[in-house]
């Protein structure tokens, strides 16, 4: 009996020392903290700006997603993958990948930031059909270079499976954002002025500035302690790493750009198609605001866990593939699918049962409770798709992942264009459910070679 206990304890200690498990725990804890802060923040915003204001804020979010896809996301993923694959090789210096990534990402984001700032009025009036987006776009544009610095440094630490810095910066960013908006609101009350939607974007800008400064300071401190990372003076090595990063990040970025453009089209068309259904413009914006500012953020609250898993699965799978360890890949994929799907089932039952409590009593909006109940049915598929997508990228199947994701969004767009004008916003919910089912099923079929069923 004692020998069995010792064996169990040794296995437990082994798993607790696993960097993926430890890293996931740290990231999940940080994500849960930020989600809790964000949950109360959403309630606060819904009381100040109401659902129409949230709808306007929701309109500009696709721009942020597009810029992130264009200038940041692919570079961050490439940094993580190259660092994870090369950190144990004596002839490679992973720090060079970070330097190259920072150069590319900050340069691109600065150029795009300038373009959006100068054309904010055109984008607001001709694309979003909402002039009130102009000041918001100008403020958000200033945050892109800082987001690039923050994300690249996070990607570097993810490659080493060190999640302390990304976790702390995540919490710091959220706290700064919320505190900034709250202080601006208090100030506006004292001077008897109406709170402005710009407060939300100023908070976002302050959060990105704080997190990028914090990440840079921690990175600088860590490089001083590690002499191996101080060999940064070889132009040939810098050019080589830059070429390697661009080779891997370009298809990833192009994929995400296409996906973000389709998502942006979806966001823009939802209010317009609701108007075709006979709903007034302000009411259509309110319905979308309830969805983007209340119901969907609540449903995605448990994704703090799956997002953390996704961030660490990519380097783990890349490392296992580089070592030709197929057994490790199989176990990682199988356990991920089981865990995420079970988590989704639990959340589905919870949100469905408590939809009225969240909608009517917390958000004080009946439409929110209706949307929460409908979206709860999609939970098992929501939480699974992100991790499966991360696994596909970790295995180098970015192209296939792009095709599958695009087809999923096209399904949603078909419902937006043809079903919403007929039956209203429920048409979008049906499209969302069908597209997520399609996405997860095809991802699993694509990974069937690695999935074990025992």
Can you put this structure into words, describing what you see?
With 454 residues, the chain is mostly helical. It has one domain. It contains 18 helices and no strands. The protein has helices spanning 2-16, 19-86, 94-118, 120-127, 134-141, 144-159, 164-190, 198-225, 235-276, 281-299, 303-322, 326-353, 355-362, 366-376, 379-394, 398-418, 420-423, 426-446. Helix 3 runs antiparallel to helix 6, helix 11 runs parallel beside helix 15 (379-394) and helix 12 (326-353) runs antiparallel to helix 14 (366-376). The longest helix has 68 residues, at 19-86.
Alpha-beta classification: mainly alpha
Largest sheet: none
Number of domains: 1
Task: Please give the radius of gyration in angstroms.
Answer: 22 Å
Low-pLDDT stretches:
none
Helical content band: over 70%
**N to C succession of SSEs:** HHHHHHHHHHHHHHHHHH
Strand content: under 5%
Overall mean pLDDT: 83
Task: Give the end-to-end Cα distance, rounded to a whole number of Å.
Answer: 27 Å
How are the elements arranged and paired?
Layout: H1 2-16, H2 19-86, H3 94-118, H4 120-127, H5 134-141, H6 144-159, H7 164-190, H8 198-225, H9 235-276, H10 281-299, H11 303-322, H12 326-353, H13 355-362, H14 366-376, H15 379-394, H16 398-418, H17 420-423, H18 426-446
Helix pairs in contact: 2-3, 2-5, 2-6, 2-7, 2-9, 2-10, 2-11, 3-5, 3-6, 3-9, 4-5, 5-8, 6-8, 7-8, 9-10, 9-16, 10-14, 11-12, 11-15, 12-14, 12-15, 13-14, 15-18, 16-18
